[in-house]
Amino acid sequence: MTEMNEARDSAFYGRRKGRPLRDQQAARFDDLYPRLALDLAAPVADAGALFPHAPDEIHLEIGFGGGEHLIHRAVEAPGVGFIGVEPFVNGMAKTLMEIDRRQIGNIRLSDADAVKVLDALPDASLTRISLLYPDPWPKKRHWKRRFVGPDNVARFARVLKPGGEFRFASDIDTYVDWTLRHVRFHPDFEWMARRAADWQAPYPGWPGTRYEAKALREGRTPAYLTFRRL
């Protein structure tokens, strides 16, 4: 496999918008998103200060899609602060609607490129990073577009606290292998699996996602990888 060793300042490829937003969705972009959006004009000095409460931990989800997992985790753990990154407008709109409906107060959002969000966060500020069913870019000429690579694994190592976790889920076996190789190669990470069941079973409290449901319908088996920051 060809590796991408050069640093990158962007990792987003693809469209940002699908179907036109409904009136209520557009309204949430106007009134709610500005209150929840990260200000990336300058580095974030204190990640805990992004939230109205002093969070027990801060978790980051990169590419949250329709927000099913992000919303579930935020409701499940109200003492934790969650940062969700999603450049796709329709996914962000769906998530904003659900945050408003449930009056969830422990989520902050960004529609910026995830690389820019990672670069803005302070050292050792996160307890968990989740990258769930990312675009696999299966063609060899597109492998350099995969979010997991030496540059972003180094970013994960910088922002995660010692003992923090990087969680990765995918139904594409080549991307699972790719991620294992890249993350295990980094000296600051340890793969937590000790037996096959550890990476074949979903995470505790896993709500499932629409991408996972599609994979299972089409006969693909997901893998759930957990790496610990040393």
Short synopsis of the structure:
This protein has helices at about 25-30, 35, 70-75, 90-100, 115-120, 150-160, 175-185, 195-200, 210-215; strands spanning about 60, 80-85, 105-110, 125-130, 160-170, 190, 225-230. By secondary structure, the chain is of the alpha/beta class.
What key attributes describe this structure?
tRNA processing, tRNA (guanine-N(7)-)-methyltransferase, disordered N terminus, Rossmann fold, transferase, S-adenosyl-L-methionine, globular, 9 helices, 230 residues
What does it look like?
It is an enzyme of class 2 (transferase). Belongs to the class I-like SAM-binding methyltransferase superfamily. TrmB family. InterPro entries: SAM-dependent_MTases_sf, tRNA_(Gua-N-7)_MeTrfase_Trmb, tRNA_methyltr_TrmB_bact. It holds the Pfam family Methyltransf_4. Pathway: tRNA modification; N(7)-methylguanine-tRNA biosynthesis. This protein has 230 residues and is an alpha/beta fold. The chain has one domain (23-37, 45-229): Rossmann fold, CATH 3.40.50.150. Helices cover 34% and strands 18% of the residues. The protein has nine helices and seven strands, in the order ααβαβαβαβαβαβααβ. The chain has helices at residues 23-31, 33-36, 68-76, 89-102, 114-120, 150-159, 173-185, 196-200, 210-217, and strands at 58-62, 81-85, 107-110, 126-132, 160-170, 189-191, 223-229. Strands 3-2-1-4-5-7-6 form a seven-stranded mixed beta sheet, with helices on both faces. Helix 3 links the parallel strand 1 (58-62) and strand 2. Helix 1 (23-31) crosses helix 4 (89-102). The two termini are 27 Å apart.
